[in-house]
Amino acid sequence: MTVSYTLEVANARFGGFSRLLFRWKGSIYRLLYKELLVFCGLYLFFSLFYRFMLSPRQQDLFERVALYCDQFTNTSFIPVLFVLGFYVTMAFNRWWGQYTSFPLPDNLMMVVSGNVHGTDERGRLLRRTLMRYANLSSVLILRSISTRVLKRFPTLEHIVEAGFMTTQELKLFESLHSDFNKYWMPLTWFSNLASRAREEGRVRDDIALRLLMDELNKYRAKCSLLFHYDWISIPLVYTQVVTVAVYSFFAFCVIGRQFLNPEKGYKGHNLDMYVPVFTLLQFFFYAGWLKVGELIINPFGEDDDDFETNQLIDRNIEVSMLAVDDMYQNLAPIVKDKHWAQRHFSIPYTLSTAAETLRPAFRGSTFDMRMSAEDLEIHQPADTPGKKQYLPLKGSLGDGLNGLLQRGKGILRGGSLPSLMDVSSHQNEEDDADAENDIDANNCNEQEKAFIQVVVEQV
User: Fold this and answer.
1) How many Cα neighbours within 13 Å face the side chain of 188?
2) Residues forming a β-bridge with 393
């Protein structure tokens, strides 16, 4: 079963991911422990062989070989990081593409339920048969690419026994000879049956029939894409290059990373630690990266994190039949909602989420941005005749500008302009002249006048 840990990492907290490191099922330890044991065994063998089984002359030869191998493992002669990174990225993109290509009948069943009408037995039969054909097609394609589904349905008779196909349909399916996969045949039956439903008036117009065909083609395209993902894999030559690069790198590490006699003064061999801690970590990272690529290159196997294809089949057939049969025209009475008579209403919170009501609603990142007086001034083109006019003030400040001038500094400190109104495009010239006379009479300084003045185009 696919290992899910989404709930455990819903909130980021101290040591949140560390608890995931001790899981066994679906872990990298389960994938890698055999290779790690082989590497440790080989390293231990050569270490004991060098220390206790070789003569001094043979030890000198082994040390020269070890230094030569270490030279290649500590340089870029073997580009392990490059080939591994590109390979895993390619495998992950392929894995995600296969996941998004899985044929789900949700859109198709909604269209069938809403456009194939009839509460009688014939209407029910048409809807259920259409969805059975769609699910049969997905079973046939998954049976061709997934080992789990093939083990569940090893023969077509098992599919008949499961109810996806009738005996007559099996005979018709086998009567059509083709050297290629025939997963598309049930979808052809779907198309023909939908056309017959249109002739009978169960599908009421050509637009509804077109909608059925469009959704059917989308469903068929996903089935076809899964088939091609299984057919065309990542080129074998690149998989071989990555595998050879990783294994040859650590084959040299088995000898090149040996701890040599520190008394001989070899560079980088001042300590004899017996256990190559950092080499083991490097093996864990690089070989683990390779294992990840091997795991996700084909997610239709039986690994811990492969797709649960059998459960997806069960889910698809159940929900599709419920949607076109039990849920067809099965509506609750249409009544007025709880807030029918309330123009303004709020949705209740629980005690654990009540604090969220104290947070101000987000209105945009520039809503509270501080503005200078120059930012408020509108530039008038030089070739456009007209004169400046100023924005009117709302509320009690509209009687005169003295109150605004007294509050100007406070508004600037607050960082907002709540007393400014939208520009009116229908003001007459007399109001403009009165506003200018009031400003001149109050002897405002230049900064305050710049705050309240906005040059607009005269209508």
Assistant:
1) 8
2) 420
Count of beta carbons in the 10 Å neighbourhood of residue 170: 14
Sign of the Cα torsion 100, 105, 108, 109 reads: negative
- DSSP assignment of 170-214: HHHHHHS--SS--TTHHHHHHHHHHHHHHHTTSS-SHHHHHHHHH
Counting every residue written for the chain, the total comes to 459
Q: Give the up-direction half-sphere exposure of residue 145: CA atoms within 13 A in the CB hemisphere.
A: 28
- Considering Cα of 285, then 289, then 291, then 292, what sign does the dihedral take? positive
The pTM of the full predicted model, rounded to 2 decimals, is 0.75
In the chain, the amino acid numbered 383 is D
User: Could you say which DSSP state residue 387 is in?
Assistant: -
What counts of helices (H) and strands (E) characterise the chain?
17, 0
Tens of pLDDT along 154-200? 999 999 999 999 999 999 999 999 999 999 999 999 999 999 999 99
The 10s digit of each residue's pLDDT in 97-141 is 999 999 999 999 999 999 999 999 999 999 999 999 999 999 999
**CA dist., res. 169 & res. 172, Å (int):** 5
Cβ neighbours of residue 262 under 8 Å, at least 6 residues apart? Answer: 269, 270, 271, 272
Tell me the one-letter amino acid at 37.
Answer: L
DSSP secondary structure code for residue 53 in this structure: S
Q: How far apart are CA 197 and CA 351, in angstroms?
A: 54
Residue 206 to residue 222: CA distance in whole angstroms: 25
